[in-house]
Amino acid sequence: MNVAQRSEYFPEANHAGSSFLGRIAVVRLAIVGVLLMPISGCFVVELLLGKQIVHISVSPSGGEIAYVQFPNLVIVKSLDNGDEDICKIRVPLMTEEVHFTSDGAMVAVDQPEFSVTSSEASVERVVALYEVNTCELAREIPLQGLEDTTALAFSSDGSFLLRSSEQSDASHVQLDLMDGDTGDSIASWIYPNTHPISFALSGDNTLALVGMAQHLSQTEEGEVSDEHIGKAVLIQVPTGEIVREWVENENLGIRAVAISADGSTIAFKYYDGTLKTTHLPTGDTQTLQSTAQEFEAMLSTFDVFSRFEKLLLSPTGAYVYSHSLFDSERVLMHEVSSREKVHEFVYEEDLGDFEISPNGQTLVVGTEGGEIKVTDLIPILERN
Questions:
Q1: For residue 353, pLDDT beyond 60
Q2: Whole-angstrom distance, CA of residue 58 vs CA of residue 62
Q3: Does the pTM of the predicted model rise above 0.85?
Q4: Which end of the chain is more exposed for a tag (fewer CB within 10 A), N or C?
């Protein structure tokens, strides 16, 4: 198939060859140990960890991308002229997400703020807004919730944001709906005995879809069962009103969710790798089978594997894009109506993140080796 793919588009050398498990389970522990080291220690960490791309955002116009290059860089590039950085911002360690504002003039970065006293060190999370043209910090928004961000999403108009968070020594997840200008809380929910949750916002800023894996039961002795249920919540935003809350699957937890831009279609990926889409107005449901399901079910028992799963719907809900942590060098594209795999995008390295442009015509992939690869989807869409 002749797909117009611009591979090796933004080369960033120094492939560390680390896996998702290595980056999350090992690297984060290493970072905790060096937070209070001299600045030279930060350079050592950066050298050892390589240049993994861990989060990508595409601008509203589709002409620029921003991404977090682990462990401490945010880079903005033009898709038309990718040889030069529009902006390169050095950010604190443990920065994980970047999002364009609605006009594309700024990038909002979820980053930590460290404070050190003679007796202890503490970490709080803020959204730092940087001007794209100048790379300078414009302002900060304090984030509600717990210490570690597990997911973050902004409304397309910037009026509100949604954040899930957890504490390292707790077994619950907190979901916070906040004002986009002040960070003030609009609504907050706590889900006990729950793995890090997945959520997605519709492009029309009216609905948020939340999916989670909750432990099935808890004994009188306080022990938690290894079995999970898949629970889903549909929230009206920005009011925070719960539209519907239901058990989506009685036997399998939900690893990832997606919602189309118009809010008409929702998608789930369960712990065994199965994909399911539902058209909300009609209730029509399609189930798609992914590869290596038994391995995905096994891997999903580790908390570390549930955070970096990715599932996307095209703007109209016609196509679903998924990524398997077991087969982490591929992105699969399925047509929802036919349930058939339309294309398989295969790369030479493990993927750190991928994103679809707002018009659904471009796929942007970031690798664990620090490369951005851009694919024109129009030839594939035209064949279907």
A1: yes
A2: 6
A3: no
A4: N
